[in-house]
Amino acid sequence: MSQLTTVDATFLSAETSTTHAHIAGLGVLDPATCPGGRLTVAAVVRLVRERAHLAALPLRQRLAEVPLGLDVPYWEDDPHFDPERHIFEIGLPAPGNAAQLGEAVAMLHERPLDRGRPLWEIALIQGLEGGRCAVYVKAHHAAIDGVLAAETLAALLDLSPEPRELPADDAAPQRAPGALSMLSTGLLKAATHPLRSALSVARTAPHLDEIPGVMQLPGVGLVSQAMQGVLRRDGGPRAPRVSAPPTSFNRPIGRHRTVAYGELDLAEIKEVRTALGGSVNDVVMAVCATALRQWLDKRGELPDGPLVAGVPVSLRKDGRENDPGNQVSIMTTPLATHLADPAERYAAVRRDMELGKRRFLASSGGWLRDLTGLVPAPLMGPLARMAMSVVPSLDLRPMNLIISNVPGPQFPLYLSGASVLGYYPISVITDISGGLNITVFSYDGKVDIGIVACRDLVPDPAELIDHLTDALDELRALARE
């Protein structure tokens, strides 16, 4: 039995009719090595039933709400848990191409998860061209972050078509505390909340100018500098005061989604890194900057200044790898879409990423955890939903979009005997973070790209996949000069 963190609970509280806080992955598979040459629902159900206890995602646990909403929920084992309730099959019409798969995944991604049972589902998608199939795996962000998602994949996947031997599950079912225990703990937390909030304010104040959106407010930088002086603390390099410019994907999002996926060659990205300096992530960010520049310029929307990207950062270090719940924060960085020269653009992206990382490391990125802890549990939901609606109406854009890079294994993996050809992350969009999200996952010599967007704002994200390919070609040409 464990309790959600305030960051976990915020992902629950922020959900609205247009914003769903689940993350997902799309695996494209070759079932030729499966028994009978076909991946079945029965095989996936058997896999989850045998390995649920090994997964970092609480596959068997559901939410247990605290009476009167006095505290954040707990996790408890679902006494009615059955993987068959979470795993289903759909088929694509011929020819089963990438566009059709993207449309099917977009419709699946629009649907909220049922909070009355464990917060995940798997769709087995048959009928892809070339005899392939796909698996769409969705889980609520309240239950998992990027690192735990990768660990869950490791638990479900094998290094060969033959499944490995695994330990049996001998753990007793975990139940949440009784109602009276929940109430007493909730009342105690409510009584001590002012003290904990004061401590959170003290920890957060020196780094106010790191919080997306807040840094744009007048005087915030001075307050941060003053607090660092009082505490005799080095806050790191000053964060540049950049304002996210308006774009067509920074309007209120609707209910419907579009999804596209593609891949880049990891060796080609490393070639650019070696020639131009920086890291693989710098190259990924520069490729995204160029692709977004092309997309905006084509529509006559290219801003005079840089876009602002939100970049999720894992806090799982210093012995916290096994901590439950979300251990994640986010930093923002300018994205030099306004620079026409490829060399200047790459240098600017590399410089801004380095500055952002140094600033983030100086604060340890704990502002998100402290900020979510300021709000008492009973007010968390209403305030989060109010912020989701009020911030965009104030024309305050903390960022234009989120770009995330998740490292993955560089060797082939198998799901119930089926070879995993690619794994494409599908993440979250909101009114505050923007109606476009680009997430990449490195796997077996490739960088797999998943793009999700609001259908009303970006009807065809596959166009961005083409621009990403062109952008890498541009950088490779620059690297060879």
- Strand runs, count: 15
How much of the sequence lies in strands comes to 15-25%
- Give the CATH superfamily of the domain at 2-163: Chloramphenicol acetyltransferase-like domain
Average pLDDT number: 87
Gross geometry: globular
Question: Would you tell me which CATH topology of the domain at 2-163 applies?
Answer: Chloramphenicol Acetyltransferase
Low-pLDDT runs of 5+ residues are: none
Tell me roughly what share of residues is in helical segments: 25-40%
Radius of gyration, whole Å: 23 Å
Distance between the termini: 58 Å
Largest sheet: 6 strands, mixed
Assigned CATH architecture of the domain at 2-163: 2-Layer Sandwich
Strand neighbour order, sheet with most strands: 5-6-7-2-13-12
List the helices and strands in order: EHEHEEEHEEHHHEHHEEHHHEEEEEH
CATH classification class of the domain at 2-163 = Alpha Beta
Number of helices: 12
Structural category: alpha+beta
Main attributes of the structure:
481 residues, alpha+beta, Chloramphenicol Acetyltransferase, 6-stranded mixed beta sheet, 12 helices, 15 strands, 36% helix
